[in-house]
Amino acid sequence: MPSESPENPSLAAVSRWRRMLLIRRFEETVARLLAERRLGGTTHLCIGQEAVAVGVCGSMERRDQVVSNHRGHGHLLAKGGDPARLLAELAGRVAGYCRGKGGSQHVAVPDIGFMGSNGITGGGIPIALGLALAAKRAKDDRVVVSMFGDGACATGNFHECLNMAALWRVPLIFCCENNLYAMSHPAEAGLSAGSPTRWAASYGDMPVETVDGNDVEAVRGAYLRLAEKVRQGGGPAFLEALTYRLCGHSRSDARLYRTREEENTWKERDPIRRSGEALRDQGLGEQLEAMKESVEEEIAAAVAHAMASPPGDEALARGGLFAPEETP
Amino acid sequence: MTPTPLSFREAVREAMAEAMRADPSVFLMGEDIGVYGGAFGVSKGLLDEFGPDRVLQTPISENSFVGAAVGAAAGGLRPIVEIMFADFLTCCTDALVNHAAKFRYMYDGKLTVPMVLRTPMGRRFGYGATHSQSPEAFFLHVPGLKVVAPHSPNDAKALLLASIHDPDPVLFFEHKLLYDTVEERSSGDETVRLGEARVVRPGRDVTLISYARGVTLSLEAASALVEQGIQCEVIDLRTLAPMDVATCIASVRRTGRAVVVSEDCLTGGVASAVAVELGERAFEYLLGPIARVSAVDVPVPSGPVLEDAVMVSSEEIARQAQHLVRSY
């Protein structure tokens, strides 16, 4: 992952733009491979939400840990994941991060602090709470981030974990990617508080921010402000990023629950386009063009690498349930 | 040295305290486990010795604090969680089944869950339908969980220590009616491995296979049958998953007859699981059908006469054993 260079903030912003484009092109490639039946399974793409992934996960230190959800490809790539190994995982190949056992919704790369995507809505929130408890116990200044959507805010896990995190003052940042729909169910029909931040503010004295989730620099700024407070031992914090999924919930979604007009409004706010325009205004157009090309090369190499890897065998499928027996 | 007594309750408490003294990453979580000492007084005194960070009393949020234990375990700690009544496992089944049990396999060993979940199960003097269940068989159906249910105090201590040291999640059932049972403390640092049954009484005519309090009832039946000249062999399974079927088969090979006793309800219960193994793998040694003695398939009623009417009795075990010996 390109590291931030404090003396050159523009180049850092360019590298964030590149990371968003990489996520977008990765997701579009997954959609194409699914349509071509070169990939199977189910996937939940994050097209339109790349600024949240990059603004939050791309701003975390390597030692910081994130627990992702079912829509997690962007989170992993933003945290420093390798698109070739992620794609191989989706394709059920041994080059995948979990050698094809996990698939799209169950990838873990603890070396880079990616503590699992999670197929149960709200299921990752308690896991993040436990990791934050371990971080507090370890007394390093690591923070843990829990990524979830507006749908998860209706689960018991959400409320139970906000309550316990506030009681235990653990270094945990709850990050709600509010994309306005829990699959097809509108957030306004699912959350009686209207906004999850109203609930969050009632748990202890948690700092709460809402940010334009389609503005990567704004997301990054909000994340860093909250992370600083959390790192100093102030207990948990809550970040809501308002965004929109520009694709369907999963591959079979005909999007009957929302209008094309609404979708077009959000297309106008495409986070990659917005960030690109701002950077072009700063005279960085040439760099963006070069980045575009390198992203295409990286994606093509990822597809080639993933598809060249073999699938696992029966021994792999049957094994690995428990730790190998220690000889007494 | 004069023999010293050990109660089941003390055994569990001592195992936890010894593990906590030896390893600072071991800690307790659960409801009312502090000053109150847990609903059955098992953790009494541990708060004084280890403090509130390591005897972490939780609000009534079972799924989230069990999920947090999963996260803490994945983050390097060794949680021991108490669920107040085994009936409440229904409130944390997602954390247990979808997370604890699956992490190692699904994430291909990238995240592992060395945690123990302890819980009291079984009937006790009219607690009624939601505080008397023996739900252990549910969890035999979940690959990735180890399930332990000891009978004797010495085994309880050794098996709990083995469970805490185990690198994978262990569900540890404690029968409420065994907490006050006492036996002579075994001599030394006897270690017991998970997955090993024990012949607790040798005999040549019929094998009685059980676990937890079912062993008490089976031993009573065995004593009662002596005067009729029937010698029962009694096997304590100790661990239900992985199950030591080999020890059961070896016994049935000698006796030719088997009665399987479990205090859960009959259909789909532990006795069924044992009987199927014997039916498939010991058919040629059997002189007659395998008998199951379990509770009636109804919720556990509260009134003492009603409760007795549907629960396992040593008389019924003796009747079944006698029938097999007389008829085959």
Rg over alpha carbons of chain A: 19 Å
Strand order of the largest sheet of chain B: 3-2-4-5-7-6-12
- Structural class of chain A, please? alpha/beta
Distance between the termini of chain B: 48 Å
CATH class identity of chain A: Alpha Beta
| Protein chains sharing the most extensive interface | A-B, 43 and 41 residues
Count of extended strands of chain B: 14
Which spans of chain A of ≥5 residues are poorly predicted at pLDDT below 50? none
Taken as a percent bin, the fraction of beta residues of chain A is 5-15%
Strand segment count of chain A: 7
Largest β-sheet summary of chain A: 5 strands, parallel
Shape of chain A: globular
Helix coverage percent of chain B: 25-40%
Order of helices and strands of chain A: HHEHHHEHEEEHHEHEHHHH
CATH architecture of the largest domain in chain B: 3-Layer(aba) Sandwich
Summarize the entry for a quick read.
Chain A has 328 residues and is an alpha/beta fold.
Descriptors:
heterodimer, A: 328 residues, Rossmann fold, five-stranded parallel beta sheet, two-stranded antiparallel sheet, 9% strand, B: 328 residues, alpha/beta, 2 domains, five-stranded mixed beta sheet, globular
Produce the secondary structure layout.
The complex is a heterodimer of chains A (328) and B (328).
Chain A: H1 9-35, H2 50-56, E1 65-67, H3 73-78, H4 83-90, H5 124-138, E2 144-149, H6 156-168, E3 172-178, E4 181-182, E5 185-186, H7 187-190, H8 196-200, E6 208-212, H9 216-231, E7 237-242, H10 260-267, H11 271-281, H12 285-308, H13 314-318
Parallel strand pairs in A: 1-2, 2-3, 3-7, 6-7
Antiparallel strand pairs in A: 4-5
Helix pairs in contact in A: 1-2, 1-11, 1-12, 2-9, 4-12, 5-6
Chain B: E1 5-7, H1 8-22, E2 26-30, H2 46-54, E3 55-57, H3 62-74, E4 78-82, H4 93-100, H5 103-106, E5 116-121, H6 136-140, E6 146-148, H7 153-165, E7 170-175, E8 182-184, E9 198-201, E10 206-210, H8 213-226, E11 232-236, E12 239-241, H9 245-255, E13 258-265, H10 270-281, E14 291-295, H11 304-310, H12 314-327
Parallel strand pairs in B: 2-3, 2-4, 4-5, 5-7, 6-7, 10-11, 10-13, 13-14
Antiparallel strand pairs in B: 1-8, 6-12, 9-11
Helix pairs in contact in B: 1-7, 3-4, 8-12, 9-10
